[in-house]
Design goal:
single chain, 208 residues, mainly beta, 13-stranded antiparallel beta sheet, two-stranded antiparallel ribbon, 15 strands, disordered C terminus
Length: 208
């Protein structure tokens, strides 16, 4: 199994919580025009622009207007668009989620989360085709630093097509659950004991 940097994809990536907008304005001068980028945030998806303070490529984002930063956005390449945002999603004062644009296209494609609050990333979600939805989610269930459960939506229909599991943490997939007929249910399981696959019907396999 691969480490987090290699794994990626799960549920719905078009989450409003991380909505980010860029507003382009043109200012005319005698010697031509200057194009600037004004970046705005609505991280909590309430339809209201979040309060921000920016300096030297770093933007502090206050989503609830309480005077405390709920997110920190960083523009590493100086193009006026943030490349990485760390978020305190649960309001406990700790930034446990990281969203980033790994391919530089201006769209967020990777979500890294510390779901158990131990200070280590244990889940990575990835939008591989820039459609605004998560295609793959990799989870480290035993805190060894490696993803041992990976759920993938191969055809971008919003349903999980395959779940692979490394149950003994040896880096090799032990079980694969697949939806072979595209009905939204995981109907086939492949294991070391049944390499050719066997019938497996899951009533919870439609959505992660």
């Amino acid at each position: 199994m691969s480490e987090y940097e290699e794994a990626a994809v799960e549920e719905d990536v078009a989450t409003e919580e991380y909505a980010e907008e860029e507003t382009y304005t043109e200012e005319s001068y005698d010697d031509g025009s200057l194009s600037t980028v004004e970046e705005t945030f609505d991280l909590d998806g309430d339809g209201l622009e979040d309060s921000t303070i920016s300096a030297d490529g770093v933007t502090l984002v206050d989503t609830d207007y309480d005077g405390e930063a709920d997110a920190i956005a960083t523009d590493y390449d100086g193009d006026g668009i943030s490349d990485e945002v760390v978020v305190d999603a649960d309001g406990d004062g700790t930034f446990e989620s990281l969203v980033s644009d790994t391919d530089g296209d201006g769209l967020i494609d990777t979500y890294e989360s510390d779901t158990d609050g131990d200070g280590y990333t244990d889940q990575v979600s990835y939008d591989s085709n820039a459609d605004g939805f998560i295609d793959q989610v990799a989870t480290d269930t035993n805190n060894d630093g490696y993803a041992d459960v990976v759920a993938t939506d191969y055809n971008a229909d919003g349903l999980v097509d395959e779940i692979s599991v490394d149950s003994d943490a040896d880096g090799v997939t032990d079980t694969v659950l697949s939806d072979n007929d595209g009905d939204g249910f995981l109907d086939t399981t492949y294991t070391e004991a049944t390499p050719e696959g066997d019938s497996f019907q899951s009533q919870t396999g439609q959505v992660i």
